[in-house]
Amino acid sequence: MRRMLSVALASMTALAVAACAEQSPTGSDVMVVPMRSSSEAASLAGEAASASASARPSDHFHAAASSREEVPTNDSRARGNATFTLSEDGTTLTYKLITAGLENVTQAHIHIAPEGVNGPVVVFLFGFVAGGVTQNGVLAEGTITQAQLIARPAIGFGGTMAELVARIRSGNAYVNLHTVRLPGGEIRGQVK
Fold first, then answer.
1. How many Å separate Cα 153 from the centre of its chain?
2. What is the value of pTM for the model shown?
3. Helix axes 38-55, 2-22, angle to 10 degrees
């Protein structure tokens, strides 16, 4: 914040000097330089920082999973919700996976593909449990690191966290929950 104030003050001073050099002073010429109290300056600096932060892409993502999102769709009434938070340094993604009405879940993943298209698994969120698990509420939670990502060269995914986040931000990643009844996936939701 002090650096922003110093830059602003230096800019105003340079403009004032330049203006003085172009004109010779007369008795009636008055130069007005706006002055701000430290609290006003801090408020303006805070507003500038807030505007800058709001222009930055979100580090929070979610997916609402249902059978309507599956390709092909199915008759399941189960629901799921996944939340993701990217660390400040961009190296980890924490998540929580919650289900309701989903029986015998064998595994859950993030896949890479746009809505309406099936794509390859790039990271496990839960499982593999051959017989499945029935859990209403939190099914899984944890932290994804780059070491857990699966590279998929055929689709141009090198297995880096930056690539995963870019795919999520562009709408090209989805969460899929697989069950004993529907091993190809019972509920799915795009990560947004």
1. 23
2. 0.72
3. 110
